[in-house]
């Protein structure tokens, strides 16, 4: 074997190198396209606002529930008003990652955005608490889609050194949103405008839409897109 390798100009111990290279090359096809630093900065700002607004909407009903009971004509616990949103939110975190592989991150982000804005308006106009809780589940699903895409892109694009810092910043935005929910909702409830505590999330969602979309468009334009059928039936974990 060594004599054959010597005649072929291959040094001993390297005869498998070409085979290994061939097997290693396809791995590079799955590497995500890199986003420029300015686009990444815009995207991160949008992700911070997105998670901040999602956190506000998760908690804010607790701050005006007493005022809402009168118009709705019911006496029920505020637990479902909070839980319904969180159920929808958490339920969409993992499926969105898979759906983004099929339909693209941009499509899933905007689907979540549309869900969030539409059901923000519809739930804010609910006439009974039970309807409000159901509609908030869909609102939470939209927030979960947007948050999932934001977290995935930040984790995918950030370097090993900065990833922990950036994710910590998103967690801080979530805590700030929870704190702002009580202050903002309480103030609006004192003025008898508890429904506006829900409606206010719709215009705030414009910031993530404007800031995150350019980076997601860049990913869509530069990524190596497989045929839709291949992406749909690809079950690699």
UniProtKB/TrEMBL annotation:
GO molecular function, one term: transmembrane transporter activity
Domain Major facilitator superfamily (MFS) profile: 34-237
Gene3D superfamilies: MFS general substrate transporter like domains
Transmembrane segments: 41-66, 72-94, 106-126, 132-153, 165-184, 196-217
Chain segments annotated as coiled-coil in the UniProt record: none
Keyword presence, Transmembrane helix: yes
Membrane-related topology note: Multi-pass membrane protein
Organism domain of life: Eukaryota
InterPro entries named in the record: MFS (IPR011701), MFS_dom (IPR020846), MFS_trans_sf (IPR036259)
One Pfam family linked to the record: MFS_1
Assigned GO CC terms: endomembrane system; plasma membrane
Record's keyword terms, sorted: Membrane, Transmembrane, Transmembrane helix, Transport
Subcellular location: Endomembrane system
Name this polypeptide is given: Major facilitator superfamily (MFS) profile domain-containing protein
């Amino acid at each position: 074997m060594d004599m054959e390798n010597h005649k072929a100009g291959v040094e001993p111990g390297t005869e498998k190198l070409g085979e290994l290279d061939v097997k290693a090359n396809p791995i590079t096809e799955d590497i995500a396209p890199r986003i420029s630093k300015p686009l990444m900065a815009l995207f991160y700002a949008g992700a911070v606002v997105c998670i901040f607004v999602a956190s506000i909407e998760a908690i804010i009903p607790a701050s005006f529930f007493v005022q809402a009971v009168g118009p709705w004509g019911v006496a029920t616990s505020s637990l479902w008003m909070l839980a319904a949103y969180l159920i929808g939110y958490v339920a969409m975190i993992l499926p969105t990652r898979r759906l983004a592989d099929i339909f693209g991150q941009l499509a899933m982000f905007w689907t979540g955005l549309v869900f969030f804005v539409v059901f923000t308006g519809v739930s804010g106009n609910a006439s009974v608490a039970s309807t409000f809780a159901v509609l908030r589940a869909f609102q939470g699903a939209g927030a979960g889609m947007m948050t999932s895409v934001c977290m995935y892109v930040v984790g995918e694009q950030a370097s090993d050194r900065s990833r922990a810092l950036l994710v910590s910043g998103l967690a801080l935005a979530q805590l700030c949103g929870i704190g702002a929910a009580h202050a903002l909702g309480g103030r609006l409830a004192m003025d008898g405008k508890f429904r506006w505590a829900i409606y206010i999330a719709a215009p705030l969602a414009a910031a993530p839409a404007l800031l995150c979309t350019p980076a997601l468009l860049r990913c869509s334009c530069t990524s190596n897109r497989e045929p839709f059928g291949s992406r749909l039936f690809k079950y690699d974990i």
